[in-house]
Structure formats: C-alpha cells, structure tokens
Amino acid sequence: MTRWGDPHFMYHSTIAQIAAKTVLRISENVLLSYNVSKFSTALQSMLSDLKGEITTTGIALNVSPLEAAIIRFTTAARDLMAIEEALKPGEWGGEQEAIVNERLGKFERGFIGDGLPGRVFYKHLIYAPGVETGYAPTTLTEVVRVGNVEEATMYVGITAAAIDEVAKLFEG
After folding, report:
1. Same domain, yes or no, for 45 and 108?
2. pLDDT at residue 147 in the model
3. Fewest 10 Å CB contacts: which of 44, 69, 159, 172?
4. Residue 54's closest CA among 118, 125, 164, 146?
5. Which helix or strand (DSSP H or E) is residue 80 part of?
6. How far is it, in rounded angstroms, from Cα 131 to Cα 141?
7. Do residues 86 and 130 both lie within one domain?
8. Is the pTM of this model over 0.85?
9. Residues of the chain scoring pLDDT < 50
10. Is the separation of the CB atoms in 112 and 123 below 8 Å?
11. How many domains does one find in the chain?
C-alpha cells in the first residue's frame, strides 16, 4: 500500500470517514429507510420487461397471478408508506413506528425461497445473478430463465405467492 496503492493513506482515510458517516446516519434513523413504493414501481417495470420477453419468444405463459400479486403489493406498499409519512417526529417511538419498522424489517426476507434450480445458493425470487450473465442480475429470476412453459408457470406461481405474502405482511 505504501508503495503502489495509497502511499499517503488518503483513500483509506476517506473510506473510513464515509463508512463512519453512513453508520452514524443509519443509527440516527428511527424508522427503517426502505421505500417500498419504489420497489413496487420496479416490480411493475420487471413485469413489463417479462411480458416483452414472452412476446418476443412467442411462448404462451400466463402471468396474471404475478400481475395480481404486484397490484396488491403496490397498494399495500403505498398504504404502508402513507403511514410512515404521516408519523410526526414527536410520535416516533410509539406503536405506529413499531408497526412500520416491523413490516419493513421483514420486507426483503419475504422474497427468499428455497434456492433456484441448479443454483441453490441463490435464493432471491425477484433478482439474482443470471446463469449466462456472470454477476449481472436478472429479474423475476426463474420465470425469465426457464426454457419450458411448465417450469416457468410454476415459478410464476411461486414468485406471485412470495409477492402476495409480503403484501399481506404490509397490510397487517
């Protein structure tokens, strides 16, 4: 490091400062800083991309369970974010804050499955590294990747069920 990487340790100091400020900022937040409304917008975009891919490949795949789950998720996410935005700083620490934090804290875990076929170490149903893309992510992971309609239909159901469960969690 002293010869080639960072002779005066300026980058090390900068990274340490950034890390410390990030930890401090996170620790000062009373509410978890997830914006699940943005995630619902991303889900809608992923569904649109999936429909485009289905049209391009010409396969007959029914994605209506996925559409219904994403609509429910979008509504539930919007309602939860409305509760969060309505909280005034003086109300923090109360029951509403605990409800929002509990629901947001379980948000990402709802999309974890048993593992993707042939790649059991990847468990996220919404995004994971692609088989042929290296570390570049694919979205709606197994629905997009699978070649046959039966397996794709199965993953539409699995993914829709996961999205639906997270929506139920948001609804309380």
Report:
1. yes
2. 65
3. 172
4. 146
5. helix 64-86
6. 10
7. yes
8. no
9. none
10. yes
11. 2
